[in-house]
Design brief:
This protein is α/β, with parallel strands linked by helices and about 350 residues long. It folds into two domains: about 170 residues, Quinone Oxidoreductase, Chain A, domain 1; about 130 residues, Rossmann fold. Helix content is about 30%, strand content about 25%. Strands 3, 5, 6, 7, 8, 15 and 16 form a seven-stranded mixed beta sheet that branches. A six-stranded parallel beta sheet has the order 11-10-9-12-13-14, sandwiched between helices. A three-stranded antiparallel beta sheet has the order 2-1-4, with no helix packed on it.
């Protein structure tokens, strides 16, 4: 089988290795579609504290090629979609319903989706290996994990409604937040710096756009929000400077979701007067829980969240080195990588 391996920053090699045999509780997938993502691009550029170098890629869907002993909920030939991690269900955070903070979340993480085959660990296979909905393609199904993360952020905003939402950063995650906000009935202000992304988000239904490189951002947001600011600001850039600015774009009593993480050890300083006297809340969001996965699954299966416009292009597995070099230069949003090289799966 062919396997893309990230050896060090900006160095991917497509190697040949034996097809693994699943052990007890494990499931071997024949990968039908894998997706590039912001986490993979970050790892490609500088490494990642939660994602080691080695077999590369974690968003995918495929067919069950073989099962290990004790697996009964799927069988060979089933079309399925995994997420890369699953909680233990036993630690303190899991018992409190905060499985996204599971102490053993990343034990048994499933990495290596840019390949012909992928071995799904026993922990993930038991909890987060779901049958692909018949109504959607393998490419669409592979959005399960990123949409689950987005759902978790929106769950942290519940039950209070969000009528006017600003999304800052228009990569794939930011665009999913725009999709989610529109599905929730909110008015959306989309903020980004690349012309093609601003044009795309306008086609996706954003009610207003802000060019963060050329507009007076604060003034533009006030103009678009009726002079009051936004109920919710969702930060998707992972920029310390944007973290600092984001509370200034919220209305009094508004909320700021810091979705994109910063490098370890990064410190930021907020305007305490703004946070305290205008009660602007800071909300952090990380990863997903099983119930977020279930909600994301239903939104994809029903077509409520249409992810097809977010796919820049479909590429063969042999193109993986060039795809990430292109993403590194700022080209495209999200690519589907197909080991079998078909136009759309």
């Amino acid at each position: 089988m062919r396997q893309a391996v990230l050896l060090e920053p900006r160095r991917i090699e497509l190697i040949t290795r034996p097809v693994p045999a699943p052990g007890p509780g494990e499931v071997l997938l024949r990968v039908r579609a894998a997706l590039t993502c912001g986490t993979d691009l970050k790892t490609y550029r500088r490494g990642h504290p939660k994602v080691p170098f080695g077999p590369f890629g974690h968003e995918c869907a495929g067919d069950v090629a073989a099962i290990g002993g004790g697996v009964s909920h799927v069988r060979e030939g089933d079309a399925v979609v995994p997420t890369p991690t699953a909680p233990c269900g036993l630690c303190g955070p899991c018992r409190q319903g905060r499985e996204n903070l599971c102490e053993r979340q990343f034990e048994g993480i499933v990495l290596g989706a840019y390949a012909d085959y992928l071995l799904v660990s026993e922990k993930v296979a038991a909890r987060h290996l779901l049958r692909k909905p018949d109504e959607i393609s393998y490419i669409e199904a592979a959005f399960l994990e990123p949409l689950s993360c987005v759902i978790h952020a929106w769950d942290r905003l519940r039950p209070r409604p969000a009528e006017q939402v600003a999304v800052v950063g228009l990569g794939a995650i930011g665009l999913l937040h725009v999709k989610m906000a529109k599905a929730m009935g909110a008015r959306v202000i989309a903020m980004g710096r690349r012309r093609e992304r601003l044009e795309l988000v306008a086609r996706l239904g954003a009610d207003g756009v802000v060019d963060t490189e050329h507009d007076d951002v604060a003034r533009r947001i006030l103009d678009l929000s009726g002079g009051v600011g936004c109920d919710v600001v969702i930060e998707c850039t992972g920029s310390p400077a944007v973290w600092v600015e984001a509370p200034g774009w919220a209305a009094p009593g508004g909320r700021v979701v810091l979705f994109a993480g910063l490098a370890a050890g990064t410190r930021v300083a907020f305007d305490a007067t703004r946070l305290h006297y205008e009660e602007v809340d800071i909300i952090n969001s990380f990863h997903y829980r099983p119930r977020d996965v279930e909600e994301a699954y239903q939104l994809l299966a029903s077509g409520t969240i249409d992810v097809r416009p977010l796919v820049t292009g479909v590429k063969e597995l042999t193109s993986i080195v060039d795809v990430f070099a292109s993403l590194d230069r700022g080209n495209g949003v999200k690519y589907a990588i197909l080991p079998e090289g078909r136009a759309w799966e």
